[in-house]
Specification:
The complex is a heterodimer of chains A (318) and B (238). Chain A is built from eleven helices and two strands; from the N terminus they run H-H-H-H-E-E-H-H-H-H-H-H-H. In chain A, helix 1 runs antiparallel to helix 8, helix 2 packs parallel to helix 4 and helix 5 crosses helix 6. The longest helix of chain A has 36 residues. The termini of chain A are far apart. In chain B, strand 7, helix 8 and strand 8 form a beta-alpha-beta unit. The N and C termini of chain B lie far apart (40 Å). Classes of the chains: A mainly alpha (318), B alpha/beta (238). Chains A and B meet through helix 6 and helix 7 of A and helix 2 and helix 3 of B.
């Protein structure tokens, strides 16, 4: 029956939208930390996602995490380990390049250092893309797990309609949610998290409080890099990727962060979730080439109705 | 306690402070007076390490401040309540105070100082979970002072705490600063434009003009000085 097929397709799109959306949410949190909270424009965020994917790939296949933990647990442990690796890379990047165009050094300047950040990170992005091409090659890769081709089936909604939940995506989604919550708790309730927010809010005043602002920026930047890399590692379990995959996702990340509302970690997550959800559901009515167009139609609509984003709140007295 | 000697500061060739010396003894209330652009805020920023001097020395409790980073200076017991309040607007009132207590001394006495801050400024207890950016100017100033106190400082530096406030609110602020000095025995270094009130509270005053220290003395000396009476108090000799 046609109606049954329609129901089945819709339910499947909804399920895929939510699972993929949660992973996008985690990816957006990484940028949300760097761009939304610390206000550093980072065009290399997509390449950090790519590095997370390759870090996970080499850990799983090269370093033998796969052999050690098996094809089920291995890829997810690999994804988690990609986080600390890219975290260190991000800290080094900040120490030598980003620190020169952000934080105390540009506090109070006309553009808050955004022009410098734009140029530096765009340069880093190009170097990482082409460097990736040299080092990793152009062959599409994927972190293979048998879970990617298995699904939980849920039925009983309507007639014979069956919802397929891809196991790899479902586990990736669960891991993404756990990490997102953990990061939220750290930022909201720990002394470290509060000092990062204070340093971002007012670097000069934070210095008066005894907060080492340069270090705070470094931690936040590296943390943002690591979080996006973990999301990359998770995506690598169900997606084939190459050195240029960052290009596809950097725009999605920015729209997610702006959609959710600048400065809010929860917002970045919901923004990412919305983007993933819209992308998957648009597949029901639109050809795949137009999926990203659908994202931006929804993006424009939301920003038109709520310019401060879904979770943005104004801290200024009216 | 705080010793500033022969300090000169320049912003890209433009002299802001010239050969300035100042000292604050433990337990004192010292005021720096001067018109706009005299270099009062520059002096504070140099003490706190946001601006580097061309020459001169700054020491606190015998330690050379110029040798250590800006953020490390707060940990020695210097709290700065900056001009224009500079509260963390996107953090709650409570979180602002917690950030004030970022130093070791502040954390060790946190519960005690929080209670004290709430006694001095009850409004901060009422507004604890509100974002600091949504407070009124007077409330933000109270928060800025509370945040300074939260570090359990030895020296509290206040840069024009009455700026932009209604006279009645400014009076309250002065009253609280005086209370902090008398009851908590915190050494105070104050920059003010409201000369009469500031001098009344202080043991010692300095007058800055275009980067030069033109006058200093006890408040009686300054209040009796013709220039101070004419330029700052608007009094003419009877």
């Amino acid at each position: 029956m046609d109606f049954e097929v329609l129901i089945e397709n819709t339910l499947n799109a909804l399920a895929a939208g939510i699972t993929i959306g949660c992973i996008y949410g985690l990816m957006c949190i990484g940028l949300g930390l760097i761009f939304g909270i610390m206000r550093i424009v980072n065009f290399a965020q997509g390449e950090l996602l790519m590095l997370g994917m390759y870090a996970s790939l080499y850990l799983v296949t090269g370093a033998g995490v796969f052999a050690f933990l098996g094809p089920y647990v291995g890829p997810f442990v690999g994804a988690l380990c990609a986080g600390p690796i890219v975290f260190v890379g991000g800290a080094v990047l900040h120490r030598f390049l980003i620190a020169r165009v952000s934080g105390l050094r540009t506090a109070g300047s006309v553009d808050d250092g955004h022009f410098g950040q734009l140029l530096v990170t765009l340069g880093i992005s190009l170097i990482l893309q082409n460097g990736g091409l040299i080092v990793f090659g152009s062959t599409p890769e994927t972190v293979r797990t048998p879970l990617a081709s298995r699904a939980f089936t849920v039925d009983g909604f309507y007639g014979d309609a069956t919802v397929f939940l891809n196991k790899a995506r479902l586990i990736a989604c669960a891991v993404a949610i756990i990490i997102a919550i953990a990061l939220y708790l750290v930022l909201e309730y720990t002394r470290l998290g509060k000092s990062l927010r204070a340093a971002a809010d007012n670097p000069t005043a934070a210095t008066y409080m005894g907060i080492d602002v340069d270090r705070a920026y470094r931690i936040a930047f590296a943390l943002g890099c690591g979080i996006t890399a973990i999301a990359g590692g998770l995506m690598a379990t169900y997606l084939s990727f190459g050195p240029f995959i960052g290009l596809d996702y950097v725009i999605i990340m920015y729209s997610g962060v702006v959609l959710g509302g600048m400065g809010s970690i929860l917002g970045a997550f919901w923004g990412g979730l919305t983007v993933g959800f819209v992308q998957q559901c648009s597949a029901l009515v639109l050809p795949p080439q137009l999926q990203n167009a659908a994202i931006f139609v929804v993006f424009l609509l939301i920003v038109m109705l709520r310019p401060q984003g879904l979770f943005g709140r104004s801290a200024e007295r009216a | 306690m705080l010793e500033v000697r022969n300090l000169s500061v320049a912003y890209g060739g433009l002299r802001a402070l010239t050969d300035l010396s100042l000292s604050v003894a433990e337990g004192q209330f010292v005021t720096v007076l001067g018109p706009n652009g005299a270099g009062k805020s520059t002096l504070f920023k140099t003490i706190c390490g946001i601006v580097a001097p061309v020459q001169g020395s700054v020491s606190f409790l015998g330690q050379d401040l110029l040798a250590i980073s800006a953020s490390a200076r707060a940990h020695l017991g210097i709290a700065h309540v900056p001009e224009g309040r500079q509260v963390f607007k996107t953090l709650t009132v409570r979180e602002n105070l917690e950030m004030g207590a970022y130093t070791k001394a502040g954390r060790a006495q946190w519960l005690h100082t929080l209670e004290r801050i709430h006694t001095l400024f009850p409004i901060l207890a009422e507004r604890a979970s509100q974002l600091a950016g949504t407070l009124s100017g007077g409330e933000q100033q109270m928060l800025a002072i509370g945040r300074g106190l939260a570090s359990a400082p030895k020296l509290l530096m206040l840069d024009e705490p009455s700026m932009g406030l209604a006279p009645a609110v400014a009076d309250t602020i002065f009253e609280r600063i005086s209370q902090i000095h008398r009851e908590d025995r915190v050494t105070i270094l104050l920059v003010e434009q409201r000369v009469a009130e500031a001098l009344e509270l202080s043991d010692h005053g300095y007058v800055l003009e275009t980067g030069h220290m033109v006058l200093d003395g006890t408040h009686q000396t300054l209040l009796a000085d013709d220039r101070v009476r004419r330029s700052y108090l608007g009094l003419t000799d009877a």
